[in-house]
Amino acid sequence: MNEQIPYSGALSSIQLASNPEPRCACALVLDVSGSMEGEPLEELQRGVQTLLRELSADPLASRRVELAVVTFGSTVKLASDFVSPDRVQLPPLSAHGGTPMGEAVVLAASALNARRRQYQEEGIQYFRPWMFLLTDGEPTDRDTPHWKEAVKIVHEGEDRRQLLFFAVAVNEADQSQLNRLCPPQRPSLKLKGLHFRELFVWLTRSLKMVSESSPGQKMSLPPTSGWNEIAL
Asked: Are 126 and 23 in contact (CB under 8 A)?
């Protein structure tokens, strides 16, 4: 995965030194554009809190899963750097601006790369990193180098088995544009209404399953029927 946007997060090795467990790094890439204002953003925040609470309560997942949050709206920023679920301190989200999705993906990839390098330096085994993107719009930066770089990062990362990328379309999100970003073998999914809680319960279960496995082990994820809207 290439890095076009400088990553300036202050990654600490304290947790790595005190916890030798293999790690699964997951970057949440969340749309906080103006169209997410109101109930969508409120439900999104509740869903994220469900994820943090459930992972923190699991003895193994709480030691193996590390989360970071990248938000994109009027700005793209690392809202929370990689830490264990119980240490995530996500500030209240506010909706504003456009949908610079490409820039957000590039920043998230840069953060994942930095964390992966630190695992390597500390001799920590790690699972294939995850990137989980939610959006209710279309990329407003699709005519910029950021979008082209984001597509390249996702596709090359998947091909080289260096990344697992998931994208979820909320409300009127443009899935045709989103699927250009997604790997062909894993197109975007459509959220049923505002079932964010069910979505994050699924993500919790999935990450718990990963944490209970061994790095490189193949596994099947839980079904998405509780939150995924199927087109008929």
From this structure: yes
Residue 109: other Cβ atoms inside 10 A = 30
Would you state the torsion angle of the CA atoms of residues 53, 55, 60, 66, taken in this order, to the nearest 10 degrees?
Answer: -120
Which token pair is 212? 């209970």
Strand partners, 23: 126
Cβ-based neighbours of 52, under 8 Å, separated by 6 or more = 67, 85, 86, 88, 90
C-alpha pair distances (Å), 26 with each of 85, 95, 120, 157: 10, 23, 17, 14
* Residue boundaries of the structural domains of the chain: 21-211
* 64 contact partners, CB below 8 Å, separation of at least 6: 21, 22, 23, 24, 127, 210, 211
Q: Which residue has the tokens 């995965």?
A: 1
> Strand, coil or helix: what is 228?
strand
Q: Is the pLDDT of residue 17 over 90?
A: no
Query: Which of these CATH numbers, 3.40.50.410, 2.30.110.10, 3.90.1300.10, 3.40.1280.10, describes 21-211?
Result: 3.40.50.410
- Max mean pLDDT among 12-16, 68-72, 90-94 falls in 68-72
